[in-house]
Design brief:
Six copies of one chain form a homohexamer. The first copy, chain A, is of the alpha+beta class. Chain A has 13 helices and seven strands. In chain A, the strands form two sheets. A five-stranded mixed barrel of chain A has the order 1-2-3-5-4.
Chain lengths: 321, 321, 321, 321, 321, 321
């Protein structure tokens, strides 16, 4: 079996095969009137233009824009940039192509850690919650939504905006919660629950196949209110869930953005709520700086200013000398 | 039956009787060690200090701070200001004192219009909604909450913050809705429903006996989210309530403040939602200016700057000459 | 007479004729040294490149950039996009080309309603003003400026920025004024006058042939102050115009933007002024959302975020299901 | 003739006479029912309470709150603070009391420099304007308004808010204008004219007898627009005043606050306008810091933070050691 | 030895002795002309007025405003409030009065934890820094400033503004640093150093005897720049301190406030700097909410809005029921 | 010797020679696989693309991106724009090419005035400082840094961002300082010193060969703190430099930006500091408007809005008619 060639390795004249995400597909006419397909393909390593000159209508039916595709083709140079002339193409799904090496993680950016391992760590943390109501609440919500949780990004574009970014963000925060809850002598069960559920509405706010986008509920209601609905609806199914405790959980979710300008209808009004907000800010900002440094195209020790922080970030030379 | 004397009419040496709101009550010792009750009393016309020197412990049990009270007493002058020496005092309720002329409207500021008349006008407008789902939704919510609706203020301190202010604000907005909906060729039923329900969460956000204050749910969840819950819960009891229509109603309630800084988690995303927000702004601002002019203590044609608008408002001389 | 072909209907190989707005015109040399004219043409339906290869210097004298032009030509495809090879071209004016079907409304966006009808509605409303001074004031200003008023846009780029947009905006506001004035028990004559005159300075702030732009007075003085000058100068010609009334009209014009940041040197200081400002905000915002939805290129139920409101707007699916 | 005693020199038991500003006057009853007059008196050096126990109704007619008064009386101590028992009192005007030493500058804060000297300096500067139109414009406006100009403050409360503060501010700015105009190679005549006229509307915005307050025109129109009217009206009386030049003068006045938030409807759009604005900012801020240091009650080297700059200002020890 | 009576326990008629902070002292005359001393006294539990009627000039020399004082006296009631008639008074210092039970912690608010224990914990953490340069840097700065560090507050008024508040804040942050450094895979030595030194300039910015106030350097230079000077000056005394490493430490100190508006001349430009800032925000905000809840005078479950967060904070009823 | 041809004079077919700044240089392959060099060249008059088709590897070693280069070549037209085919190219330095007419001022924008003359004027002003400590301080810092001072820009992109812009900005400010210091009766020596040193840190913040960029110290520490270090270090070498005086100089430097948002860690706290800030604002803004007008590409009397002031600037027609 031939090796899979990532876009960043394309060289003029190569015959390649591999899996890519088709982000644009247009049926066009050449000047001589023939049909062809004009594609933009992407994977974790880069982006390239593709053209299909032959069997155009056959191939046109095999895949849509937004699909992962399996491709055989040849690399040309057009206008000083590589371009892929596609010879064979088909929609790639895990069902059909896993045995040929297809993994969605090839075509979209993905969390570094293994989602299964992260899932296990999170469920272990849930298992340690002592308050039986909060433990049940978290367990049920996570269990019911496991499928989505395994691959969901944490946001469309701001931070942890990649496959399994949601799990990565939650796990990082949860680990902090179990340290910082006792540090500040708070109800750690409540802090941890707040962390686990604060963004849970994103499962319905964001539609995430390969490319994340907002759902209708996301646009009109928003993840803050949706998430608090989820917590509330589940708590109602748990017998004798204390009313005051639920109110606190709801408040933590509603206030976790911390500022009205960031669309929280309430600001944190007790310490557990404040801590969940502050942990969220910390983990998001650390991740945003991480990504800003990784994505930066500059060669020197500093990034340019086109990042969240609007300053040149110091990527460093070599640490402590 | 002796006449009821409002505080603004108190004169030195008068023997008076009337109904007042007791806003502060403190049990104190005179220098000689005797107990006395130190009161602050208020009605629609002003405020006065009161003292009870006799039968202190008996009277002390008859009423609490926050109660409306029936009083007989005498007016002195102390430190150049009137003071009431209370001879008899009792808690005033509609049950016991209505026949003596007690009406809560005597002791707290109240909307000008009659609440019963406003209620009737609003229910007439609800009756004209053509969409059967929206009509049922509004009818049920208003019917169930009628008691509170009759006396609730529209806010704790900003606008229409007086007895039956809620009704007054909604009725004014509703009348505009039925004009402006067609003017902009919108779904007037939806605009009217939005107007009727946008602030409905205030019934649970604000606790309003004589003095309005925030409830626990008000502080931790807020009227925007509570109101949307009420609409949603009621809609779920109406058979085949269209999903998209409910989503629109929910969005109108969530976005009616119009700005994130004003605690709306969403900004209006379609025209009916935008219009509800704009009508709300218009009616609130007109009312705020109205009250700012009425409350102003200055004598000249202009108010001072200590108002919402931070400018001297022109109260006018006589119109058009 | 051949039909007029709008740009959106251009197809390769067509011979067309029609009226377009020439928004750019450049005289250039081909590689072989020959002169040609490079044009950008626009109408209500779209935009296209044009070339004139023959009789270049003759045609060059017949029209300028900014003119409406009458064209005969042929549609080619260049770089996958239509391009018009112009065979004949001439400046189009209502005088010369009306009989061939020329109407400025063909080449620039225009209000939906008929300007003549709107004019009539507005003058009817002016006729109903009871205060003789205000009626005279409005009549005179509108009469003197009728020509401009018929076609002026309400702004260069924000709202109602199309032919006769000024009339459309004023008429919409005036209709609200006559409803809302009585609703708030205000001097409706004054509100209506405020509405009619608040933006009157735009007649001199904006130069509007086919494309609107700012005049020197517009840039250095601005429509707010210019408009107040117009009201003042006209009032001085009306015998015994009450001094206080004029002061109020001036204040309404100066304060109608409502906020200092929006270039109003004063904020509304009485209720008629506040209402004019609020009606203006309402009508502008409703129009801005209207246009944002119409101009949006997205296919789904939501617009993109590149609009005044910075959120995805819900264009809807089908109403209430 | 006995000496005039300033309030800061009042000592218990003194018999004094002097001139003071009566800032409050109330007719009251003693506990025994007798009438007395309760006064607050102020001069450049401080403030004191006054009481009139005798011939109350006679004296009551001799002066009003807001008047300067001539007083004879005796100093007591009441509640640990000096209090003046007034024996004789009369309204003080320059006409009647100048020969006894009355000067308005005794009772209100006044510019350090002599207004006559400042006037002369300013007219000399006007005399040096080369452009005949601008020279005439400034001369006429200053000549017509000379009386007011001699005593007007530059603002109600911000900077140069004392008698003849207007002249002081303008003269300081004018001296800078004739230096900085050539420094930046600008039209110095225009800069100087801008400086002389930028705040001229304050003559009608502020009513200033002893205490400055806003006029009706000031509140509803504002000094920026009023000032530009004055320049415009005067220019219209000067034959062949160049249209463009007038436009520039108007723009300088309208834009001199520099920011929309500071109520300028325009921002400076050419260099002379920008410089007038910057000179104004410089002179105002220097004066505000000056006054903040002088008014500060703290003993140490730093003021408190309750000043325009919101920081502790360094009043210094002794300069350079 | 008689017990020490805190101010909150004062009752009419008590003879008391104790240690208090004299926050105001004024020499005054009675109406009869005798001298007396008027005092305001404070301790951890409250505040009271004091009077010295006898041996006034003797006692006047024994202490100053700002001193801790040892007092014997008697409690009266004046105007319904307790007042202390002082019989004997002397300045209290640890040298002279420790054996009578004097401890500065009696008269000013103090951190809960023992400063000696906190000191030990911090030096232990310093001992674990692996980078020899950073370890030496921290050790030297802490050793040299030990005396001040033991009692310094962390700020004048915002957070940890009590005796030993600096140590408390630093220790809390340092414990987080050693957890969160590895959590984010950063240079933990650098994060810990940043935490230890970020506020070190406060030792010279704030003068703290019993009441904290700003020094001249504090007002004119500020703790951010002073602290960075201290780090720099000490590093220069350490042989071969790596230049780049010092630059990073300096940047962390300069950027730790995180925002320009909070007086940081730089924003965090690498991850260790960002984390120090975020830990600082977290610890400060948690402390501010803590104090806001403790200081709140309201009786119900919510505080009033007069706190840093401008919302009612939920002090809670009993947790989870 | 052939004349030097500026880019703005390039015409098709010309053989030219001259000095240009190479701002981009890329080694590329033609479709046929041959190497060529793709250049972007700039001088004071414009920008042009350049190609080197021959002796590619030889020439490639002779210069780098960022160098000034001496070129012989021929002008073609490509895609309707001039393009330079380079025949000979070499790095241009003052050492080697001055005799052929090379001057860095040819290839980068440069102050109008002669740096040597400006230097002399500044040193004359320093010579007039009376305070011996301040005079020595300024002399030493200027003498040591003379080389950099002669060519440094005043900023990377905001104002005076051209060769010798630093000198130009300082000289303009210094001339104002000696006028305005006495005008406001301040310590003019201190104002002048503040002006001379306020931006001195820019010598180390900005790296300026032909194109200015930020240094590592610039990014991590910033010119404000660096400049104050320079003043401080130099003052320490001057015997008996008064401590308080140094503190003032340091404060002036730290506070000269005037606002926290502009990265000043302190705001001006005394009058000399305030005046230095205000002079800086004035000179920067005047320069920014100057450049905005010069750089504007519009033909009419107004610039477009894409400038610092966000308004159309009035470039004028002809002055006063």
């Amino acid at each position: 079996m031939k090796p899979i060639v990532p876009i960043s390795k394309f060289k003029e004249g190569d015959s390649i095969q591999g899996f890519y995400l088709c982000v644009e597909k247009h049926l066009r006419h050449t000047r001589s009137g023939d049909l062809y397909l004009d594609l933009i393909l992407r994977d974790r390593t880069g982006q390239v233009q593709g053209k299909i000159w032959e069997k155009v209508s056959d191939f046109n039916e095999k895949f849509s824009s937004g699909d992962a595709v399996a491709i055989k083709g040849e690399v040309d140079i057009f206008m000083d940039r590589p371009q892929l002339t596609v010879k064979r193409i088909n929609k790639a799904t895990v069902q059909n192509y896993a045995r040929y090496g297809f993994d969605p993680a090839l075509v979209v950016p993905t969390a570094n850690a293994d989602p299964n391992k992260m899932w296990k760590e999170i469920t272990t943390l849930i298992g340690k919650i002592k308050n039986p109501f909060l433990k049940k609440l978290c367990h049920q919500i996570y269990r019911v939504n496991k499928d989505k949780l395994m691959t969901h990004p944490a946001s469309v574009s701001m931070h942890h905006n990649y496959r399994s970014g949601f799990l990565e963000h939650i796990l990082s925060m949860a680990k902090m919660a179990v340290r910082l809850g006792p540090h500040y002598r708070l109800d750690t069960d409540l802090v941890l629950t707040g962390v686990l559920l604060h963004d849970i509405g994103k499962l319905h706010e964001i539609e995430s196949d390969y490319e994340a986008s907002f759902t209708k509920e996301g646009n009109l209601i928003g993840h803050i209110v949706i998430g608090r609905d989820m917590a509330r609806a589940t708590a109602k199914t748990i017998k004798k869930f204390p009313k005051n405790l639920l109110l606190k959980v709801e408040h933590i979710i509603l206030s976790h953005q911390g500022k009205y300008e960031w669309q929280s209808p309430k600001k944190p009004a007790f310490k557990e709520a404040l801590l969940v907000h502050l942990i969220d800010v910390m983990d998001s900002q650390m991740n945003i700086m991480d990504m800003a440094m990784e994505d930066d195209p500059e060669k020197g020790p500093f990034t340019n200013r086109h990042n969240y922080f609007r300053i040149p970030l110091f990527k460093g030379e070599n640490g402590t000398e």
